[in-house]
Amino acid sequence: MTQYPALRLRRTRASAWSRRLHAETVLTPADLIWPLFVTEGDGEEPIASLPGVSRWGLGGIVERAREAAALGIPCVALFPNTPASLRSDDGREALNPDNLMCRAIKAIKDAVPDLGVLTDVALDPYTSHGHDGLVDAAGYVLNDATAAVLTEQALVQAAAGADIVAPSDMMDGRIGLIREALEAGSHANVQIMAYAAKYASGFYGPFRDAVGSRGLLKGDKKTYQMDPANAEEALREVALDLAEGADSVMVKPGLPYLDIIVRVKSEFQVPVFAYQVSGEYAMIEAAAAVGAGDRDTLVLETLLAFKRAGCSGVLTYHAPLAARLLGA
Ligand code: PBG
User: Fold this and answer.
1) Rounded to the nearest 5°, which phi and psi values hold at 215?
2) Does residue 1 have a pLDDT over 60?
3) In this structure, what CATH number is given to the domain that contains residue 77?
4) Is the pLDDT confidence value at 44 over 70?
5) Tens-digit pLDDT profile for residues 260-287
6) Residues within 6 Å of ligand 1 by CB
7) Residue 83 belongs to domain spanning
8) pTM of this structure
9) Whole-angstrom Cα distance, residue 89 to residue 103?
């Protein structure tokens, strides 16, 4: 160092203005998608395992949508907590054009037309067994029969006004079927964000509480969601979903899979999104609660990491907090 005093990398870090000037990656509210849980009735239902996050009735959902718009968040993602009486083996409530999800989509698009609405295509909030698709007698989730139902579900959501349909089920071939059906059904501009590399993860627990599927789920989802050991397979999943017509792809969960994000981005140069999932949110909240870390710092640092890895945006329950911190 004394030999090369010109080579001081700390020089550009010495002041706040200079650090800002040299930042290679920038996080803004426009990078955020806010997942919201919808419930019947008009109350607020806090979710114990997801402190600070609630399910909202339609009135509350519209308020959250207005809040998102005011904060500069471009898009919200909707997940319904279907009443138990409407859950069935075949999840047929998913196809009801007047279901909770469709009413929420319409309410938001009526009140805040310029806010993007992303919808979840999968059957787990509607089935009595908690799986994302139709199961046979042995409990195996049937691929092609499920993909056909999901195609109908995507059409129902598009007709209600969804801007982006996001299949989170991991059935093979469903992106192509959905793309074809959207084109045929005059929804050519409805986007598909494919949950392309979705792993069978231990980080989804609080989400399953939120949509009411935790207690119902029989077994696990390892026959359709990916093995956390695999990375090459994620590239094959992404390649297939893109070939079938996905507009963007998602990696999920987020932080434990940053390597996958980097590889997908460098291999395909397409819009990549990360889902910082419920268990990741809960981990940050737990750390903040015991004083192990500062919540605001942890939130912004983890979200910036997704941008640095190459993401176009991030689905995160911390979206409103992050947008506020970013000074929207
Ligand atoms: C299921 C679905 C899951 C999440 C989104 N869609 C959970 C699962 O696969 O069981 C998880 C999101 C989160 O944990 O925040 N279709």
Assistant:
1) -70, -20
2) no
3) 3.20.20.70
4) yes
5) 999 999 999 999 999 999 999 999 999 9
6) 120, 122, 124, 132, 168, 204, 207-208, 221, 277-278
7) 26-327
8) 0.97
9) 23
